[in-house]
Amino acid sequence: MQRQVALIKQSLFDQGYLDEQFMELEELQDDANPNFVEEVSALYFKDSARLINNIDQALERGSFDFNRLDSYMHQFKGSSTSIGASKVKAECTKFREYCRAGNAEGCLRTFQQLKKEHSTLRKKLEHYFQLARQAGPKETARRPK
Amino acid sequence: MLTTSPIKLINGFVADPSNNTGQSEIVQVENGGYVDETKLETSSGHCPESAHQYENGNGRCFSKESESCSSSQASSEGGTLEMESELTVSSQREEEKAETNLKESSKPKILLVEDNKINIMVAKSMMKQLGHTMDIANNGVEAINAINRSSYDLVLMDVCMPVLDGLKATRLIRSYEESGNWNAAIEAGVDKEILENEQVCVRSTNRLPIIAMTANTLAESSEECYANGMDSFISKPVTLQKLRECLQQYLH
Question: Positions modified as Phosphohistidine (chain A) (predicted)?
Answer without folding.
Answer: 74
